[in-house]
Amino acid sequence: MAKSYNGRWEVIRQIEESGQAHIFEVMDQKKEFANSVLKRIKNPKRSDRFLNEVKAYKTLDHPNIIKIIDHSNLQNDFKKPDDMFIVMPYITGGNLTKKSGKF
Fold first, then answer.
1. CATH at residue 62
2. I need a surface site. Which of 11, 40, 63, 97 has the fewest CB within 10 A?
3. Total structural domains in the chain?
4. pLDDT for 98
5. Residue 14 bridge partners (DSSP)
6. C-alpha of 97 from chain center
7. In what order do the strands lie in the sheet with 21-28?
8. Per-residue confidence band for 31, with pLDDT thresholds at 50, 70 and 90
9. Is the pLDDT of residue 85 over 60?
10. Strand-pair partners of 77
């Protein structure tokens, strides 16, 4: 059986892995969103950074900034990596770092 997050996001496949996170293509079991990705933080010790990222996404509003669809409970104690995730629309075109080499 496939891994599921929040009882909603079912992992289809892993797309990328960065120094901080694993990125998965996910299926919305509620069928509200198509083509979504889940970014799961690797290290629970980075919970402060995760919280800052979620707060930044929620406060910024610009056409070039991707919107968050869902995220893990921010009141969690983050004891394991599965506790920290963000779900966003799946934007095709690849990794910006690999394309430009400037990030």
1. 3.30.200.20
2. 63
3. 1
4. 63
5. 24
6. 17
7. 4-5, 9-17, 21-28, 36-41, 85-89, 70-71
8. very high
9. yes
10. none
Beta-bridge partner residues of 10: 4, 27
Is 26 a residue whose pLDDT tops 90? yes
d(CA 25, CA 11): 6
Question: Which residue is listed with tokens 């079991």?
Answer: 29
Q: For residue 40, give the nearest of 95, 3, 65 by alpha carbon.
A: 3
Torsion angle of C-alpha atoms 90, 46, 54, 6, degrees rounded to 10: 60
* pLDDT tens-place string over residues 49-71: 888 888 888 899 998 888 899 99
Say how far apart CA 4 and CA 1 lie, in whole Å.
9
Q: Report yes or no on whether pTM surpasses 0.85.
A: no
Nearby residues of 55 by Cβ (< 8 Å), 6 or more positions away: none
CA angle 97, 24, 47 (to 5 degrees): 80
Q: What range does the domain containing 58 cover?
A: 4-100
d(CA 69, CA 84): 14
